[in-house]
Design goal:
The chain is α+β, with helices and mostly antiparallel strands and 188 residues long. Helices cover 47% and strands 21% of the residues. The protein is elongated, with a radius of gyration of 21 Å. The relative contact order is 0.18.
Length: 188
């Protein structure tokens, strides 16, 4: 049957927000420095802006994952961890957006009966490279804007397994991965 690899999405929303914020941080320092001759505020805003930009870039680039469908199994790897899922163990693979992913996680938390939300979130998003709104630097301020982007519609893959586990994946071409999983299940 062969092997097919899927690249994961790399989103830079936190970094882009910081790039757009930097001029508004630095401009007051320039104005005060030009009018008073004291450029300490300008240097301070440059340091804050550079630190914020570096932190945003670090957060956006830290999560890496890889997906491959090899013969009768799906191989997921992220941060030194690798997991193999037999294609026959996949109950359902469906497209999902970020709002739906947050709602699904909330529903899972409500039904978990005592399991900590952080533990459920880690298990749910272990192989996902897209931030669905839980660890943004903007504290949710830009979440609505990001959720409404045309690229944010149906860009995640919800994978339900026979053992009851649910995984969120973020392949670059989610529909192609759903189609490939469906074809492999039919060939079995």
């Amino acid at each position: 049957m062969g092997s097919k690899r899927f690249r994961t999405q790399r989103l830079w929303h936190n970094t882009l927000i910081m790039v757009w914020t930097v001029p508004f941080l630095v401009l007051p320092g320039i104005i005060v420095g030009a009018s008073s001759g004291d450029f300490r505020l300008f240097l301070g805003t440059i340091i804050v802006a550079a630190s914020g930009l570096a932190l945003a870039a670090l957060r956006d680039s830290r999560k890496k994952a890889a997906y491959a469908i090899e013969d009768d199994r799906l191989v997921l790897s992220s941060a030194g961890e690798e997991r193999e899922v037999m294609i026959g163990d996949v109950l359902d693979a469906s497209l999902l957006d970020r709002v739906g992913a947050r709602a699904y996680l909330k529903e899972m938390t409500d039904l978990a009966g005592g399991r900590p939300e952080a533990e459920l979130r880690e298990e749910f998003m272990r192989f996902c490279t897209v931030d669905i709104g839980f660890s943004t630097l903007t504290l949710g301020a830009a979440r609505r804007l990001i959720d409404r982007l045309p690229s944010a519609k149906s860009d995640l893959l919800l994978l339900r397994l026979r053992n009851g586990q649910v995984l969120l994946l973020s392949p670059l071409y989610a529909q192609d991965m759903v189609d490939t999983l469906g074809r492999r299940k039919l060939q079995m």
